[in-house]
Specification:
It is a single chain. The strands form three sheets. The chain has a five-stranded parallel sheet, covered by helices on one side. A two-stranded antiparallel sheet has the order 3-4. The protein contains five helices and nine strands; from the N terminus they run E-H-E-H-E-E-H-E-E-E-H-E-E-H. A hairpin with a 2-residue loop joins strand 8 and strand 9. Among the domains are: 106 residues, Rossmann fold (3-Layer(aba) Sandwich); 38 residues. By secondary structure, it is α/β, with parallel strands linked by helices.
């Protein structure tokens, strides 16, 4: 499974953030990509409604409540998640191509600035009705991420997501070393399996043999 492209969208209220997110969803869904959205807010609000069964379950002390119907499944967690925790959770549900986070302020998430709000860390683009330019940038990121499927690393059975920089280092290093070996022709694919040797717990102890006279 490849890791999705993650982009934040931020700006003042009524600056057009939601409209931009809606348009991007429509565009990339039509292209066949799988999209997820996250809405982040600093307001102390809840999507659950007082008086409903799920609200009563939370009030009784349940940390996790699931509401399921023929139309949808809602998972309600009664505690906050940071961005990394949310991404880890949703990527276990679907093999996603793109995640858009409206209201993102996580410094590790690349962001698109909408309007004239003060620029946040890791801002990679500014949206000033230049939709085609933003669309091309996102498409380029998706294409780059798709190319990372050529390199997969598993540690203790768990796949480690790779971004473009470490993927390039690993690929160039391994191919460079192998190309220098005798008898290696054109390299198409490489499979390497590494297992760390464990130290023996019961090492043989040296014993002295006494000679009797």
């Amino acid at each position: 499974m490849s890791y999705p492209v993650v982009l934040g969208i931020y700006g003042y209220s009524n600056s057009g953030k939601t409209t931009l997110v809606e348009r991007l969803i429509t565009t990339f869904v039509k292209k066949g990509y799988k999209i997820a959205t996250i809405k982040k807010t600093k307001k102390h609000i809840s999507r659950d409604t007082e008086g409903t069964d799920t609200y009563r379950y939370h009030a009784a002390g349940a940390n996790l409540v699931v509401f399921s119907s023929p139309q949808q499944t809602d998972i309600l967690l009664h505690y906050p998640f940071d961005t990394k925790q949310i991404l880890s959770m949703i990527t276990t549900f679907h093999d996603l191509d793109l995640v858009l986070i409206e209201g993102s302020d996580d410094p590790d998430v690349p962001k698109i600035q909408v309007g004239d709000r003060a620029q946040r860390k890791n801002t990679v683009a500014r949206y000033r009705h230049n939709y085609e330019e933003v669309e091309r940038m996102i498409q380029k990121k998706i294409n780059q991420e798709a190319s990372l499927k050529n390199v997969q690393i598993f540690v203790n059975g768990k796949e480690i997501p790779l971004t473009e920089f470490p993927e390039s280092i690993i690929t160039n290093t391994i191919f460079g070393m192998l190309s220098s070996l005798k008898g290696i022709g054109a390299i198409h694919d490489v499979h390497i399996y590494l297992t760390k040797q464990q130290k023996k717990k019961n090492e043989r102890k040296k014993t002295k043999v006494r000679q009797s006279h």
